[in-house]
Amino acid sequence: MHCPFCRHSDSRVIDSRTSDDGLSIRRRRQCPECGGRFSTIETASLNVIKRSGVIEPFSREKVMSGVRKACQGRPVTEGDLAVLAQTVEEAVRQTGASQIDTNEIGLAILGPLRALDEVAFLRFASVYQAFDSLEDFESAIAGLRADHADQPDRLRAGEAEPTR
Ligand SMILES: [Zn+2]
């Protein structure tokens, strides 16, 4: 890494520290040429391609704000949202992709949100999956009911799967 002060082509790591969440490493560096000190932060790159084509770094806060709207008036805490956003990030990172589109994030949100609050799940799914008829709601609700009934055979047959 080039020195930001004198552009010398090398630098020496004098300290490394992993962040509390374990997702990044902060390195303190020193330039052997001018002695200047600077820090770098290393993370596994994960970018989101928005519908507009704009690319930006994955943000748990954006996941939380997207889900927060669907959770209005529901017994869901900020802590619940933070856990959900972390679950989504882990799921997305596990795919090994360095770039994903917002659609895939929406998909990764559906499962954990459903486990968290079914009403919020229906609200989120209705917007995200663009429900445009009562039938869309009915089939999503039928999917939830089927899980409540705890009949794995029916689910496996695909009769009560929620629309995707
Ligand atoms: Zn330097």
TrEMBL record:
Pfam families reported for this sequence: ATP-cone, Zn_ribbon_NrdR
Record's keyword annotation contains Repressor: yes
Zinc finger (unnamed) residue numbers: 3-34
UniProt region (Disordered), positions on chain: 1-20
Keyword Signal: no
Domain ATP-cone span(s) in chain numbering: 46-136
The entry's keywords: ATP-binding, DNA-binding, Metal-binding, Nucleotide-binding, Repressor, Transcription, Transcription regulation, Zinc, Zinc-finger
Cofactor(s) required, per the database record: Zn(2+)
Co-factor binding comment: Binds 1 zinc ion.
Biased composition (Basic and acidic residues): 7-20
InterPro entries: ATP-cone_dom (IPR005144), NrdR-like_N (IPR055173), RNR_NrdR-like (IPR003796)
NCBIfam families: transcriptional regulator NrdR
Summary of the function given for this chain in its UniProt record: Negatively regulates transcription of bacterial ribonucleotide reductase nrd genes and operons by binding to NrdR-boxes.
Protein family: Belongs to the NrdR family.
Protein's name according to its UniProt entry: Transcriptional repressor NrdR
